Amino acid sequence: MLDQREFIPVADDLIAGTAQEPELIGSRCRRCTTVTFPRQASCPRCTSEDVEERRLQRRGTLWTWTIQCFPPKSPPYAVASGDDFEPYGVGYVELAGEVRVEARLTEADPARLRIGMLMELTLIPAPGDSGAATFAFRPAEDDEEADR
Amino acid sequence: MTEDVAVVGVGIHPFGRHEGVTGLQMAAVAARRALADAGVRWEEVDFAAGGSDAGGNADTSVASLGLTGLPFINVKNGCATGGSALTTAHAMLVSGQAEVALVVGFDKHPPGAFNPLPEDWGIGSWYGETGLMLTTQFFAMKIQRYMAEHGITPSTLAKVASKAFANGSRNANAWRRKPLSEDEVLASKMVNHPLTQYMFCSPGEGAVALVLSRGARIGELARTPIYLRSVAFRTRRFGSFEVFSPSVPIESAPSATSEAAAAAFEQAGIEPKDVDVAQVQDTESGAEVMHMAETGLCEHGEQEALVQSGATGLGGRLPINTDGGCLANGEPIGASGLRQVHEVVLQLRGDAGDRQIPGPPRVGFTQVYGAPGVSACTVLTV
Prior knowledge:
heterodimer, A: mainly beta, 9 strands, 39% strand, globular, B: alpha/beta, Peroxisomal Thiolase, Chain A, domain 1, 9-stranded mixed beta sheet, two-stranded antiparallel ribbon
């Protein structure tokens, strides 16, 4: 289990905040307001280099999804053997007014995923034995309420 | 006024698995067949371009074809390798710097999904380590969204694959030649929801070569020249949803395919409705469905009725991927784009044998798409 106060992020400049309330580190263009993730040194929309760090919203809606049903090859995947592979969910979550972020999902049951459902950022152990944490989205507890 | 450019010869090395045969050897076989088809000696070729993703340097094939000193440009541009080589040859011919050009695309990949490294695509290694660096995921998520927006059903995805294998069964050069029913496709193993195993193509092996010429030489060389009216190549714009994207802007933009197709039709002075036969990138069933509309061959959402009614089959109003596409031929990255042109040339000549579409067809179209968001399209006519 992840420590409740501290965690080792799978990469630098990717995840901030606490284990309970992680935040993604993106960037925002000061000229055209475009938000990117991960953080970039220049704006992919207007080419400006005047960009600032931005902590992204922790909640959004599921824009699209799939289930990864076969073990990815290693490299680049951190786990070499596919013997005990468990399928996992992947999706893009739209953070309103910011950007759509691709991420692992904590839910791997296709019957429990649907476009438009409310999702919340969390941490999961990164694949492999590094002990690091990576970001993922989980269905938000108040999703039914939000999905009127 | 610029001179016409035409395909005057085509050659193919069968797609599939060929143990003991290198990619370069397959390229040389395809090149010799294209030269023989055109009735051209290698010494007469004054420009060549070609490439592979993983099969070696195309230029090396001149060692087996003959060292004639010709300019040979090696191309390595992912799935658009063949399209890039063709773009280069077309430009050399149109500008008068070459008279007879050869383009060749080939590849040889190990079994299983591709495993590109994030660092090569400008992304942190975490993206691959955590299991996000897969083309199959991208295509699955793109069609998942598309199905919700445009009313495409799993049955249509399965019918696309079933059609591909039916066409492949009529193509001696195809890899997968066993017909599969819609139910068999749907019942195969789930790979990435909503796409099952038989809705995906597999990385494979193969080679294709084309001989092109211009102006007065065309008539001297070809019994039935097929004119290359345009070839257009584009990369993605900000806002388009493309493979290997850790994030996607909310602001949307047309895909690289939409832009390349529009440019190809405009350059050719031909409209999508005039197309009699098309080959579009079908690395999986959903890609064929989405590319049909992105290229302008139909409206978004219209694919459901077109596929369900059989309009995209060999006897239909708009036959698509008549040689079985990537689904039946597999995906040797460097060869796929030229395979599409090879097939359109055969169909327009009336040389497609068991899979010849009625017509006779007069206008053909091809489209390839690849990482990290590139596309090449052509318009060909009799």
